[in-house]
């Protein structure tokens, strides 16, 4: 067996000497070391030898196998040195352009709103999207027979065991908040006047999805509670905010309205000269009003000493006006053509 292995070694050495390509070298490797190669066949034939010859024959075959593996790798290294590959990077080629990301229009508008309110001295506030009926309705002076408390109008959650810890105060069913107004209650529970906060966040309502409605949207809520706060403060604040967002030429009008948590209540319309249809279209911008005394009393604030105003508006609705977007669904469909057109670079 030793003599036979020496003959195989001589054959392999000669074959490696004339192998000039990687393909030829791979063919030699398979011939000797492959699953059906010479060395595996020799190892398989050991069982036919007498027991006293198997050990010496096995040692000879394994020595040849180890030498063959080393010789093939050495030849592969020699071929690589003789025929080096070209560089994987050609520094003379122009670089490949990397597409820039961009800020989503809703995020961009949210940042703009945050910047404006911070300049006015408002503090940023936040609250959970999973609320109780107390915070979403009761504390906001919304009675049990109000239509919004119907299961067809609000997303009520049936399995509290799968949800995070419930809010610390108030009972009732859990739901996805239908407005950011519950943040008002939480802020007034934690702080004493003067209070000046704004709260952007996502809200949920069971609306039919169309060009102007969605089941999820972003809203900004604002609240001021101080001594001697009046409608004049409310009017001046909102005209300044929307003037910044829509342009200084924008005209405003306040229409009487009804909200259970403010009294008196108003809706604000805006007119942008030269931008509205025929220059005459008033666009609804915001709901607002003076905080209802019952809301103040419910959080332990004396309505005889303090007064306040609150307001709320939708970020997507404002974007539709500012960017002249015809369909609300464009903000959630992730169409790269729309996002590239509407967004600024990140």
Task: Walk me through this protein's architecture.
By secondary structure, this protein is an alpha+beta fold. The chain has 2 domains: 80 residues; 238 residues, BirA Bifunctional Protein, domain 2, CATH 3.30.930. It has a 7-stranded mixed beta sheet, sandwiched between helices. Strands 2-4-3 form a 3-stranded antiparallel beta sheet. Helix 2 packs antiparallel against helix 4. It is elongated, with a radius of gyration of 38 Å. It starts with a helix and ends with a helix. The mean pLDDT is 85.
Question: What is shown here, in short?
Answer:
The chain has 346 residues and is of the alpha+beta class.
Q: How would you summarize the topology of this molecule?
A:
Blueprint: H1 2-18, H2 22-33, H3 38-44, H4 51-82, H5 105-119, E1 123-124, E2 130-132, H6 133-136, E3 156-157, E4 174-176, H7 182-190, E5 195-204, E6 216-226, H8 231-246, E7 251-259, E8 262-271, E9 283-291, H9 293-298, E10 307-314, H10 315-322, H11 336-342
Parallel strand pairs: 1-5
Antiparallel strand pairs: 2-4, 3-4, 5-6, 6-10, 7-8, 8-9, 9-10
Helix pairs in contact: 1-4, 2-4
């Amino acid at each position: 067996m030793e003599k036979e292995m020496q003959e195989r070694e001589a054959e392999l050495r000669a074959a490696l000497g004339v192998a000039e390509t990687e393909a030829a070298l791979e063919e030699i490797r398979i011939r000797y070391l492959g699953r059906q190669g010479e060395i595996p066949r020799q190892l398989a034939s050991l069982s036919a030898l007498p027991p006293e010859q198997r050990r010496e024959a096995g040692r000879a075959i394994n020595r040849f196998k180890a030498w063959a593996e080393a010789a093939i790798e050495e030849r592969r290294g020699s071929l690589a040195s003789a025929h080096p590959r070209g560089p994987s990077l050609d520094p003379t080629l122009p670089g490949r352009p990397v597409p820039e990301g961009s800020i989503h229009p809703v995020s961009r508008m949210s940042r703009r709103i945050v910047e404006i309110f911070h300049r006015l001295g408002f503090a940023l506030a936040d609250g959970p999207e999973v609320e109780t009926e107390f915070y979403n309705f009761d504390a906001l002076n919304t009675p049990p027979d109000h239509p919004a408390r119907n299961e067809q109008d609000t997303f009520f959650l049936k399995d509290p065991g799968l949800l995070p810890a419930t809010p610390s105060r108030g009972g009732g069913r859990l739901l996805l908040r239908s407005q950011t107004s519950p943040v008002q209650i939480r802020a007034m529970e934690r702080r004493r006047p003067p209070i000046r906060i704004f709260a952007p966040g996502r809200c949920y309502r069971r609306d039919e999805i169309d060009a102007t409605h969605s089941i999820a949207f972003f809203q900004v809520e604002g609240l001021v509670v101080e001594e001697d706060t009046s409608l004049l403060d409310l009017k001046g604040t909102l005209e300044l905010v929307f003037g910044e967002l829509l342009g200084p030429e924008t005209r405003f009008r306040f229409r009487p309205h009804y909200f259970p948590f403010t009294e008196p209540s108003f809706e604000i319309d805006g007119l942008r000269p030269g931008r509205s249809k025929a220059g005459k279209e008033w666009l609804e911008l915001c709901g607002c009003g003076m905080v209802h005394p019952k809301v103040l009393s419910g959080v332990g604030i004396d309505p005889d000493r303090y007064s306040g105003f609150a307001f709320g508006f939708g970020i997507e609705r404002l974007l539709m006006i500012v960017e002249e977007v015809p369909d609300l669904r464009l903000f959630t469909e992730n169409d790269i053509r729309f996002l590239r057109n509407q967004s600024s670079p990140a």
